[in-house]
Amino acid sequence: MRTIIVGFLGCGNIGCGVWKLLNEFKEDLLHRSGVEFSIKKILVRDIAKKRDEVVPRHLLTTNPADVTDDPEIEMVLEFMGGETPATQYMLRALQMGKTVVTANKMALALNWHLLQSAAEKHNAGLYYEAAVCGAIPVIRTTIDSLQSNRIEEIMGIVNGTTNYILTRMSQEGSDYADVLRDAQRLGLAEPDPTSDVEGYDAAYKISILSSLAFHARVPFDVVYRQGISQIETVDIAYGKELGYTLKLLAIAKRQGNVIDARVHPTFIPDSHPLTSVNGSFNAIFLHGHACDDMMLFGRGAGSAPTASAVVSDMLYAASRETPRHPTFRNNNELAEGLTVTDDWHCSFYLRLSASDRPGIMAHITTCLGNEGISIRNLMQRDAVDGRAQIVLITHDAGECAVRNAVEAINGPDVQVESMIRVEGN
Known about the structure:
alpha/beta, Rossmann fold, Dihydrodipicolinate Reductase, domain 2, Alpha-Beta Plaits, six-stranded parallel beta sheet, 14 helices, 18 strands, 35% helix
Protein backbone atom coordinates (compact mmCIF):
# COMPACT_ATOMS: atom_id res chain seq x y z
CA MET A 1 0.00 0.00 0.00
CA ARG A 2 1.17 3.51 -0.83
CA THR A 3 -0.08 6.61 1.00
CA ILE A 4 -0.13 9.96 -0.81
CA ILE A 5 -0.47 13.12 1.27
CA VAL A 6 -2.89 15.57 -0.35
CA GLY A 7 -3.73 19.26 0.03
CA PHE A 8 -6.84 21.08 -1.22
CA LEU A 9 -6.96 24.57 -2.65
CA GLY A 10 -10.60 25.43 -2.01
CA CYS A 11 -13.46 23.41 -0.55
CA GLY A 12 -16.66 24.50 -2.29
CA ASN A 13 -19.07 22.15 -4.03
CA ILE A 14 -16.39 20.29 -5.99
CA GLY A 15 -13.96 20.14 -3.09
CA CYS A 16 -16.67 18.76 -0.81
CA GLY A 17 -17.57 16.26 -3.51
CA VAL A 18 -13.97 15.03 -3.68
CA TRP A 19 -13.77 14.89 0.12
CA LYS A 20 -16.92 12.75 0.21
CA LEU A 21 -15.80 10.43 -2.60
CA LEU A 22 -12.33 9.89 -1.12
CA ASN A 23 -13.83 9.00 2.26
CA GLU A 24 -16.85 6.94 1.22
CA PHE A 25 -14.99 5.05 -1.54
CA LYS A 26 -11.71 4.77 0.33
CA GLU A 27 -11.61 0.96 0.69
CA ASP A 28 -12.58 0.35 -2.93
CA LEU A 29 -9.92 2.76 -4.18
CA LEU A 30 -7.31 1.09 -2.00
CA HIS A 31 -8.32 -2.38 -3.18
CA ARG A 32 -8.30 -1.39 -6.86
CA SER A 33 -5.14 0.73 -6.92
CA GLY A 34 -3.14 0.00 -3.80
CA VAL A 35 -3.15 3.75 -3.08
CA GLU A 36 -4.52 5.59 -0.06
CA PHE A 37 -4.99 9.36 -0.13
CA SER A 38 -4.55 11.22 3.14
CA ILE A 39 -5.77 14.84 3.22
CA LYS A 40 -3.52 17.03 5.35
CA LYS A 41 -4.59 20.64 4.67
CA ILE A 42 -7.48 22.45 2.97
CA LEU A 43 -7.24 26.11 1.97
CA VAL A 44 -10.50 28.02 2.54
CA ARG A 45 -11.51 31.68 2.65
CA ASP A 46 -13.56 31.30 5.83
CA ILE A 47 -12.85 28.55 8.35
CA ALA A 48 -16.19 29.12 10.09
CA LYS A 49 -18.30 28.72 6.91
CA LYS A 50 -20.82 25.86 6.95
CA ARG A 51 -20.05 23.25 4.28
CA ASP A 52 -21.98 20.45 2.59
CA GLU A 53 -19.63 17.91 4.13
CA VAL A 54 -18.32 17.86 7.70
CA VAL A 55 -14.63 18.62 7.26
CA PRO A 56 -12.52 18.53 10.46
CA ARG A 57 -11.66 22.07 11.50
CA HIS A 58 -8.00 21.24 12.15
CA LEU A 59 -7.50 20.55 8.43
CA LEU A 60 -8.66 24.04 7.41
CA THR A 61 -6.32 26.97 6.79
CA THR A 62 -6.47 30.42 5.26
CA ASN A 63 -2.75 30.39 4.40
CA PRO A 64 -2.06 29.00 0.89
CA ALA A 65 1.54 28.19 1.83
CA ASP A 66 0.24 25.55 4.25
CA VAL A 67 -0.76 23.63 1.13
CA THR A 68 1.66 24.70 -1.59
CA ASP A 69 4.84 24.74 0.50
CA ASP A 70 4.38 21.82 2.90
CA PRO A 71 7.08 19.27 1.95
CA GLU A 72 4.89 16.35 3.08
CA ILE A 73 2.11 17.20 0.64
CA GLU A 74 2.77 15.41 -2.67
CA MET A 75 -0.45 16.23 -4.52
CA VAL A 76 -2.42 19.47 -4.64
CA LEU A 77 -6.05 19.57 -5.78
CA GLU A 78 -7.31 22.96 -7.00
CA PHE A 79 -11.04 23.77 -6.71
CA MET A 80 -11.01 27.56 -6.40
CA GLY A 81 -12.14 28.41 -9.92
CA GLY A 82 -11.33 31.60 -11.78
CA GLU A 83 -7.99 32.72 -13.16
CA THR A 84 -6.55 34.33 -10.04
CA PRO A 85 -5.31 33.55 -7.47
CA ALA A 86 -5.78 29.92 -8.52
CA THR A 87 -3.12 30.16 -11.25
CA GLN A 88 -0.54 31.61 -8.86
CA TYR A 89 -1.20 28.93 -6.24
CA MET A 90 -0.96 26.12 -8.80
CA LEU A 91 2.28 27.58 -10.15
CA ARG A 92 3.73 27.63 -6.65
CA ALA A 93 2.74 24.01 -6.02
CA LEU A 94 4.29 22.93 -9.34
CA GLN A 95 7.46 24.87 -8.58
CA MET A 96 7.65 22.91 -5.32
CA GLY A 97 7.56 19.69 -7.37
CA LYS A 98 4.02 18.70 -6.41
CA THR A 99 1.49 17.05 -8.71
CA VAL A 100 -1.46 19.37 -9.42
CA VAL A 101 -4.95 18.18 -10.32
CA THR A 102 -7.41 20.88 -11.35
CA ALA A 103 -10.98 21.28 -12.57
CA ASN A 104 -10.32 24.91 -13.52
CA LYS A 105 -10.92 25.38 -17.26
CA MET A 106 -10.44 29.15 -17.12
CA ALA A 107 -7.05 29.08 -15.43
CA LEU A 108 -5.91 26.25 -17.69
CA ALA A 109 -7.13 27.76 -20.96
CA LEU A 110 -5.59 31.16 -20.23
CA ASN A 111 -2.37 30.05 -18.50
CA TRP A 112 -1.73 26.50 -19.69
CA HIS A 113 1.65 27.49 -21.12
CA LEU A 114 2.82 28.81 -17.74
CA LEU A 115 1.51 25.84 -15.80
CA GLN A 116 2.96 23.24 -18.17
CA SER A 117 6.31 25.04 -18.28
CA ALA A 118 6.52 24.99 -14.48
CA ALA A 119 5.46 21.34 -14.37
CA GLU A 120 8.09 20.27 -16.91
CA LYS A 121 10.85 22.32 -15.29
CA HIS A 122 10.20 20.83 -11.85
CA ASN A 123 9.26 17.30 -13.00
CA ALA A 124 5.75 17.69 -11.60
CA GLY A 125 2.44 16.32 -12.85
CA LEU A 126 -0.40 18.48 -14.17
CA TYR A 127 -3.77 16.79 -14.77
CA TYR A 128 -7.11 18.34 -15.75
CA GLU A 129 -9.68 15.73 -16.83
CA ALA A 130 -12.36 17.51 -14.77
CA ALA A 131 -11.80 20.83 -16.58
CA VAL A 132 -13.79 19.72 -19.64
CA CYS A 133 -17.17 17.96 -19.42
CA GLY A 134 -17.03 16.80 -15.80
CA ALA A 135 -17.31 13.02 -15.51
CA ILE A 136 -17.03 12.39 -19.27
CA PRO A 137 -13.48 11.06 -19.88
CA VAL A 138 -12.96 13.13 -23.00
CA ILE A 139 -9.43 14.32 -22.10
CA ARG A 140 -8.16 10.81 -21.40
CA THR A 141 -9.91 9.44 -24.47
CA THR A 142 -8.30 12.11 -26.65
CA ILE A 143 -4.74 11.78 -25.35
CA ASP A 144 -4.70 8.00 -24.78
CA SER A 145 -7.34 6.06 -26.70
CA LEU A 146 -7.29 8.13 -29.90
CA GLN A 147 -3.55 8.51 -30.39
CA SER A 148 -3.71 6.48 -33.62
CA ASN A 149 -6.16 8.99 -35.12
CA ARG A 150 -5.94 12.29 -36.89
CA ILE A 151 -8.90 14.04 -35.31
CA GLU A 152 -10.43 16.35 -37.87
CA GLU A 153 -13.56 17.61 -36.14
CA ILE A 154 -14.92 18.16 -32.64
CA MET A 155 -18.48 19.28 -32.03
CA GLY A 156 -19.88 19.31 -28.54
CA ILE A 157 -22.42 20.44 -25.99
CA VAL A 158 -19.99 21.38 -23.24
CA ASN A 159 -22.06 23.74 -21.06
CA GLY A 160 -24.96 22.30 -19.09
CA THR A 161 -26.53 25.64 -18.18
CA THR A 162 -27.11 26.72 -21.77
CA ASN A 163 -28.24 23.24 -22.78
CA TYR A 164 -30.83 23.30 -20.00
CA ILE A 165 -32.07 26.72 -21.10
CA LEU A 166 -32.32 25.81 -24.79
CA THR A 167 -33.98 22.47 -23.97
CA ARG A 168 -36.68 24.24 -21.95
CA MET A 169 -37.17 26.88 -24.64
CA SER A 170 -37.56 24.15 -27.26
CA GLN A 171 -39.82 21.80 -25.34
CA GLU A 172 -42.04 24.41 -23.67
CA GLY A 173 -41.83 27.44 -25.95
CA SER A 174 -40.68 29.49 -22.95
CA ASP A 175 -38.81 32.78 -23.32
CA TYR A 176 -35.08 32.94 -22.63
CA ALA A 177 -35.38 35.37 -19.69
CA ASP A 178 -37.99 33.21 -17.90
CA VAL A 179 -35.96 30.00 -18.25
CA LEU A 180 -32.77 31.75 -17.14
CA ARG A 181 -34.50 32.87 -13.94
CA ASP A 182 -35.61 29.29 -13.29
CA ALA A 183 -32.07 28.04 -13.92
CA GLN A 184 -30.71 30.55 -11.41
CA ARG A 185 -33.32 29.56 -8.84
CA LEU A 186 -32.38 25.89 -9.27
CA GLY A 187 -28.67 26.64 -8.97
CA LEU A 188 -27.96 25.64 -12.58
CA ALA A 189 -26.98 29.20 -13.49
CA GLU A 190 -24.90 31.65 -11.49
CA PRO A 191 -26.34 34.97 -10.26
CA ASP A 192 -24.11 36.49 -12.96
CA PRO A 193 -24.63 34.00 -15.82
CA THR A 194 -22.35 35.75 -18.33
CA SER A 195 -19.66 33.08 -18.49
CA ASP A 196 -22.22 30.41 -19.40
CA VAL A 197 -24.80 32.19 -21.55
CA GLU A 198 -22.30 34.31 -23.52
CA GLY A 199 -20.17 31.27 -24.36
CA TYR A 200 -16.99 31.99 -22.38
CA ASP A 201 -17.15 28.69 -20.48
CA ALA A 202 -17.56 26.71 -23.69
CA ALA A 203 -14.77 28.68 -25.39
CA TYR A 204 -12.31 27.83 -22.60
CA LYS A 205 -13.19 24.17 -23.00
CA ILE A 206 -12.91 24.01 -26.79
CA SER A 207 -9.55 25.78 -26.58
CA ILE A 208 -8.26 23.00 -24.32
CA LEU A 209 -9.89 20.13 -26.17
CA SER A 210 -8.95 21.26 -29.68
CA SER A 211 -5.33 21.79 -28.61
CA LEU A 212 -5.14 18.19 -27.43
CA ALA A 213 -7.06 16.81 -30.40
CA PHE A 214 -5.02 18.69 -33.02
CA HIS A 215 -1.67 18.32 -31.17
CA ALA A 216 -1.16 22.07 -31.50
CA ARG A 217 -1.99 24.96 -29.22
CA VAL A 218 -5.31 26.66 -30.03
CA PRO A 219 -5.41 29.59 -27.60
CA PHE A 220 -8.63 30.94 -26.15
CA ASP A 221 -8.31 34.29 -27.91
CA VAL A 222 -8.62 32.74 -31.40
CA VAL A 223 -11.95 31.06 -30.55
CA TYR A 224 -14.96 32.82 -32.10
CA ARG A 225 -17.66 33.24 -29.45
CA GLN A 226 -21.38 34.02 -29.55
CA GLY A 227 -23.79 33.25 -26.72
CA ILE A 228 -27.50 32.47 -26.47
CA SER A 229 -28.83 35.62 -24.82
CA GLN A 230 -30.27 36.94 -28.11
CA ILE A 231 -31.98 33.69 -29.13
CA GLU A 232 -35.73 34.01 -29.67
CA THR A 233 -38.26 31.27 -29.19
CA VAL A 234 -39.70 31.93 -32.66
CA ASP A 235 -36.45 30.79 -34.28
CA ILE A 236 -36.39 27.59 -32.25
CA ALA A 237 -39.98 26.90 -33.33
CA TYR A 238 -39.27 27.55 -37.02
CA GLY A 239 -36.19 25.34 -36.80
CA LYS A 240 -38.29 22.50 -35.36
CA GLU A 241 -40.73 22.81 -38.27
CA LEU A 242 -37.82 22.35 -40.65
CA GLY A 243 -36.41 19.36 -38.72
CA TYR A 244 -33.68 21.05 -36.68
CA THR A 245 -32.83 21.44 -32.98
CA LEU A 246 -30.94 24.39 -31.53
CA LYS A 247 -27.89 23.83 -29.30
CA LEU A 248 -24.98 25.96 -28.14
CA LEU A 249 -22.10 24.07 -29.73
CA ALA A 250 -18.36 24.27 -29.28
CA ILE A 251 -16.85 23.41 -32.65
CA ALA A 252 -13.29 22.90 -33.85
CA LYS A 253 -12.25 21.64 -37.28
CA ARG A 254 -8.88 21.14 -38.90
CA GLN A 255 -8.20 20.78 -42.61
CA GLY A 256 -4.49 20.59 -43.24
CA ASN A 257 -2.97 23.57 -41.44
CA VAL A 258 -6.19 25.61 -41.38
CA ILE A 259 -8.46 25.45 -38.34
CA ASP A 260 -11.62 27.07 -37.17
CA ALA A 261 -12.61 27.12 -33.53
CA ARG A 262 -15.92 28.60 -32.50
CA VAL A 263 -18.77 28.65 -30.00
CA HIS A 264 -22.23 29.74 -31.11
CA PRO A 265 -25.90 28.71 -31.23
CA THR A 266 -26.24 26.04 -33.91
CA PHE A 267 -29.08 24.20 -35.57
CA ILE A 268 -28.43 20.48 -36.06
CA PRO A 269 -30.69 17.99 -37.88
CA ASP A 270 -33.04 16.03 -35.64
CA SER A 271 -31.29 12.87 -36.88
CA HIS A 272 -27.93 13.94 -35.39
CA PRO A 273 -26.86 12.17 -32.15
CA LEU A 274 -26.34 15.48 -30.34
CA THR A 275 -30.03 16.36 -30.76
CA SER A 276 -31.01 13.90 -28.02
CA VAL A 277 -28.66 15.47 -25.46
CA ASN A 278 -31.04 17.48 -23.27
CA GLY A 279 -31.15 19.22 -19.92
CA SER A 280 -27.82 19.76 -18.21
CA PHE A 281 -26.10 16.81 -19.90
CA ASN A 282 -22.95 17.25 -22.01
CA ALA A 283 -21.71 15.35 -25.06
CA ILE A 284 -18.74 15.45 -27.41
CA PHE A 285 -18.99 14.28 -31.02
CA LEU A 286 -15.61 13.47 -32.62
CA HIS A 287 -14.50 12.49 -36.08
CA GLY A 288 -11.14 10.82 -36.63
CA HIS A 289 -9.68 9.58 -39.89
CA ALA A 290 -9.44 6.01 -38.54
CA CYS A 291 -12.12 5.78 -35.84
CA ASP A 292 -14.71 7.69 -37.91
CA ASP A 293 -17.57 9.16 -35.82
CA MET A 294 -17.72 8.82 -32.03
CA MET A 295 -19.78 10.41 -29.26
CA LEU A 296 -19.14 10.60 -25.52
CA PHE A 297 -22.13 11.50 -23.35
CA GLY A 298 -22.74 12.10 -19.66
CA ARG A 299 -22.87 14.50 -16.76
CA GLY A 300 -20.73 17.53 -17.49
CA ALA A 301 -21.03 19.30 -14.16
CA GLY A 302 -22.06 18.81 -10.56
CA SER A 303 -20.22 17.92 -7.40
CA ALA A 304 -20.18 14.12 -7.70
CA PRO A 305 -19.51 13.82 -11.47
CA THR A 306 -16.68 16.34 -11.30
CA ALA A 307 -15.27 14.64 -8.21
CA SER A 308 -15.25 11.38 -10.18
CA ALA A 309 -12.98 12.97 -12.80
CA VAL A 310 -10.71 14.54 -10.18
CA VAL A 311 -10.18 11.26 -8.32
CA SER A 312 -9.59 9.51 -11.65
CA ASP A 313 -6.76 11.97 -12.31
CA MET A 314 -5.37 11.37 -8.83
CA LEU A 315 -5.21 7.63 -9.47
CA TYR A 316 -3.78 8.18 -12.96
CA ALA A 317 -1.04 10.42 -11.55
CA ALA A 318 -0.28 7.97 -8.75
CA SER A 319 0.18 5.14 -11.27
CA ARG A 320 2.84 6.96 -13.33
CA GLU A 321 6.54 6.98 -12.48
CA THR A 322 7.07 10.11 -14.58
CA PRO A 323 4.54 12.86 -15.34
CA ARG A 324 2.96 12.98 -18.77
CA HIS A 325 2.52 16.25 -20.65
CA PRO A 326 1.26 17.19 -24.13
CA THR A 327 4.01 16.94 -26.73
CA PHE A 328 3.09 20.06 -28.72
CA ARG A 329 4.87 23.38 -28.18
CA ASN A 330 2.68 24.98 -25.54
CA ASN A 331 2.94 28.73 -26.05
CA ASN A 332 0.22 31.26 -25.41
CA GLU A 333 -0.21 31.74 -29.14
CA LEU A 334 -1.45 29.78 -32.11
CA ALA A 335 0.87 26.93 -33.00
CA GLU A 336 3.45 27.80 -35.63
CA GLY A 337 2.34 26.83 -39.12
CA LEU A 338 -1.38 26.92 -38.32
CA THR A 339 -3.81 29.60 -39.45
CA VAL A 340 -7.29 30.34 -38.12
CA THR A 341 -10.05 31.09 -40.56
CA ASP A 342 -13.11 33.22 -39.89
CA ASP A 343 -14.61 32.07 -43.19
CA TRP A 344 -15.76 28.59 -42.16
CA HIS A 345 -18.32 26.74 -44.25
CA CYS A 346 -21.67 25.39 -43.10
CA SER A 347 -25.34 25.91 -43.86
CA PHE A 348 -27.16 28.96 -42.52
CA TYR A 349 -30.66 29.64 -41.17
CA LEU A 350 -32.03 33.09 -42.02
CA ARG A 351 -35.28 34.61 -40.78
CA LEU A 352 -36.41 37.69 -42.69
CA SER A 353 -39.20 40.21 -42.29
CA ALA A 354 -40.33 41.52 -45.67
CA SER A 355 -42.91 43.83 -47.20
CA ASP A 356 -45.74 41.93 -48.81
CA ARG A 357 -45.16 43.05 -52.38
CA PRO A 358 -43.87 41.56 -55.65
CA GLY A 359 -40.14 41.31 -56.24
CA ILE A 360 -39.04 40.67 -52.66
CA MET A 361 -38.12 37.00 -53.19
CA ALA A 362 -36.31 37.91 -56.38
CA HIS A 363 -34.28 40.47 -54.44
CA ILE A 364 -33.40 37.93 -51.75
CA THR A 365 -32.40 35.17 -54.16
CA THR A 366 -30.39 37.60 -56.28
CA CYS A 367 -28.39 38.82 -53.26
CA LEU A 368 -27.73 35.23 -52.21
CA GLY A 369 -26.92 34.15 -55.75
CA ASN A 370 -24.42 36.97 -56.20
CA GLU A 371 -22.44 35.37 -53.34
CA GLY A 372 -22.80 31.85 -54.75
CA ILE A 373 -25.35 30.82 -52.11
CA SER A 374 -28.27 28.52 -52.93
CA ILE A 375 -31.36 27.73 -50.84
CA ARG A 376 -31.97 24.27 -49.36
CA ASN A 377 -35.29 24.93 -47.54
CA LEU A 378 -37.77 27.80 -47.77
CA MET A 379 -40.82 28.59 -45.65
CA GLN A 380 -43.06 31.67 -45.77
CA ARG A 381 -45.80 32.79 -43.40
CA ASP A 382 -48.81 34.91 -44.36
CA ALA A 383 -48.28 38.62 -44.02
CA VAL A 384 -49.36 40.37 -40.82
CA ASP A 385 -49.70 44.15 -40.93
CA GLY A 386 -48.15 44.11 -44.38
CA ARG A 387 -45.03 42.17 -43.33
CA ALA A 388 -44.32 38.54 -44.21
CA GLN A 389 -42.02 36.16 -42.35
CA ILE A 390 -39.61 34.28 -44.62
CA VAL A 391 -37.42 31.50 -43.25
CA LEU A 392 -34.75 29.77 -45.29
CA ILE A 393 -31.84 27.41 -44.85
CA THR A 394 -28.98 27.61 -47.32
CA HIS A 395 -26.82 24.90 -48.77
CA ASP A 396 -23.20 24.88 -47.60
CA ALA A 397 -21.78 28.41 -47.81
CA GLY A 398 -18.94 30.51 -46.50
CA GLU A 399 -19.40 32.71 -43.43
CA CYS A 400 -18.10 35.81 -45.23
CA ALA A 401 -20.32 35.22 -48.27
CA VAL A 402 -23.42 34.94 -46.09
CA ARG A 403 -22.55 38.09 -44.17
CA ASN A 404 -22.08 39.94 -47.48
CA ALA A 405 -25.44 38.64 -48.72
CA VAL A 406 -27.20 39.69 -45.52
CA GLU A 407 -25.77 43.19 -45.84
CA ALA A 408 -27.00 43.38 -49.45
CA ILE A 409 -30.46 42.05 -48.58
CA ASN A 410 -31.15 44.48 -45.75
CA GLY A 411 -33.09 47.55 -46.76
CA PRO A 412 -36.43 49.35 -46.22
CA ASP A 413 -38.47 46.46 -47.61
CA VAL A 414 -36.67 43.48 -46.13
CA GLN A 415 -34.59 42.85 -43.01
CA VAL A 416 -32.68 39.77 -41.90
CA GLU A 417 -33.80 39.45 -38.28
CA SER A 418 -31.91 36.29 -37.38
CA MET A 419 -28.91 34.34 -38.69
CA ILE A 420 -28.04 30.99 -37.11
CA ARG A 421 -25.42 28.55 -38.34
CA VAL A 422 -26.39 24.98 -39.23
CA GLU A 423 -24.06 21.98 -38.81
CA GLY A 424 -24.35 18.25 -39.33
CA ASN A 425 -26.24 18.21 -42.61
